[in-house]
Amino acid sequence: MGAEPRISEFLKARRAAVEPAQLGLTGGAARRRVRGLRREEAAAVSGISVDYYTRIEQGRGGNVSDDVLRAVARGLRMTADEHAYLRNASHWAATGRGCAPDAPPEPPLVVRPGVQALLDSMETVPALLYGRALDVLAWNRLGGLLWPELVASPPEDRNSAKRLFLDGADAELRHPDLAELRRLEVAVLRAESGRNPEGRRLCQVVGELRERSTEFRRLWESQVVEEKTHGVKRVRLPSTGQLLELRYETLRLPEADSEMRIVTYSAVPGSETAEALRELAAGVTA
């Protein structure tokens, strides 16, 4: 199995996540053998026949219309990210395309000098440039000081998901919220697989992590989908262990660079984290 979206597994997981009581379906609760909704209930709340819903879930629905997919997403209480993934998964189920181990690699993503100059101009906040499959392509000075393990890795391992799942005790020491970070990394990779299931790099990263990490494999099989573009991330300074609380924002690059995104990490003005970043930039800590 590769990284391609599998509509059957996804819809089964979403059905299992919906409590019948949420939808007023309380009859027969004592007789339920599995969590969540039965297929006939999922069909009913989606406003389609049981036969048609079953064919969609089994990947035999053909070119399912956006209206029907919207109804299924609404009936199963999907988020916007999950709805987008459902559309993508339905499309790939209809075409039968997905990961091909012998497919040629994609053209490498080239970091333009102007993009690196933009990163370098951010002198007071750490910033990383991400590419396909959570590869880290570039960084500014503070980003390199805050995440030296990424900078020191060979290019093929300069990947945030690999570092979170494969660095073991080091990852646990650096990231107090490691379990949630891992969940979000898998959710982002799952969303990317919906957009580009034939991506060779994505297939490589997902395949390696499924083979080497039981935790990644468990999260991947849970079908979690989410693209969180902003929030708070806690990380410890590599030198002193001081805990930093950073606000992150994701900025997607336009047009030809659309597969790349800049993530910046800032601190609340006047906070201990802001002072720690100032000292890191000044070379007081490293």
Automatic annotation (TrEMBL):
It holds the Pfam family MLTR_LBD. SMART domains: HTH_XRE. It comes from the Bacteria. One of its GO terms (molecular function) is DNA binding. Residues 30-83 form the HTH cro/C1-type domain. CDD domains: HTH_XRE. InterPro entries: Cro/C1-type_HTH, Lambda_DNA-bd_dom_sf, MLTR_LBD. This is HTH cro/C1-type domain-containing protein. It comes from Mangrovactinospora gilvigrisea. The lineage of its organism: Bacteria, Bacillati, Actinomycetota, Actinomycetes, Kitasatosporales.
